[in-house]
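Quick one, tokens below. Sequence please?
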């Protein structure tokens, strides 16, 4: 009788009861199934990155006496002609700036999607893609520079001193770079789909928001990678 009374009260206000929400047809989270699943994926991916960074912290703590200094490992700009200059953090700060800009342009693309502005969505997706590609290009330059100095998965250079540093660096930044690459591919698909009118036919631009969540996650993870390898 109590349950019946609750359900009747909910119907009188035009609001479905909790039991009805969980029967299917409408998400009990107050949002679409796609966005809920994207959040689930991002939460699970957070645990993966967290496990990598915890491993980094544990190995660094056990080898603290020999652990290399970031200001020495990343002391130069990995571009021919500039690699002899002592400018620690300049290059990685530029990489971080690229991701910050891409976060802003992604937010603007989502806003234009809410307004059903096809041209506006494309206008802001393109610079987001360019920032992502530029970030990957910078990562390529950094990797090749470090490998040229002798830091690989199986060897260490005069500045890295510890084998685990190079192994963790390539694995963690490589895993993050893979996420950026996947994000760029998704953004390219999103731009093409927007240009073709796919989302206008659907009547919404929710896909822009879902991929935007993924992109912001990738940008946020970089903050922690940046903190562990380049600052601490």
């Amino acid at each position: 009788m109590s349950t019946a009374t609750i359900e009747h009260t909910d119907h009188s206000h035009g609001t479905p009861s909790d039991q009805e929400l969980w029967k299917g047809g409408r998400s009990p989270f107050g949002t679409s199934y796609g966005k809920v699943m994207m959040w689930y994926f991002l939460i699970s991916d957070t645990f993966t990155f967290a496990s990598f960074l915890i491993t980094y912290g544990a190995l660094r703590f056990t080898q603290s006496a020999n652990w290399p200094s970031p200001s020495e490992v990343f002391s130069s700009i990995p571009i021919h002609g500039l690699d002899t200059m002592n400018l620690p953090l300049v290059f990685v700060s530029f990489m971080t700036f690229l991701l910050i800009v891409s976060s802003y342009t992604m937010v603007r693309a989502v806003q234009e999607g809410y307004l059903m502005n096809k041209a506006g969505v494309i206008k802001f997706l393109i610079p987001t893609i360019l920032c992502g590609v530029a970030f990957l290009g910078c990562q390529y330059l950094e990797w090749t520079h470090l490998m040229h100095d002798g830091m690989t998965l199986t060897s260490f250079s005069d500045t890295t001193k510890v084998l685990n540093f190079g192994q963790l660096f390539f694995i963690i930044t490589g895993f993050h770079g893979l996420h950026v690459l996947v994000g760029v591919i998704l953004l390219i698909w999103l731009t093409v789909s927007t240009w073709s009118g796919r989302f206008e036919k659907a009547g919404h631009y929710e896909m822009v928001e879902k991929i935007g969540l993924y992109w912001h996650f990738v940008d946020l993870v970089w903050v922690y990678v940046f903190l562990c390898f380049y600052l601490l």
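Confidence is low (pLDDT under 50) at residues 1-13. Residues 1-30 form one domain.
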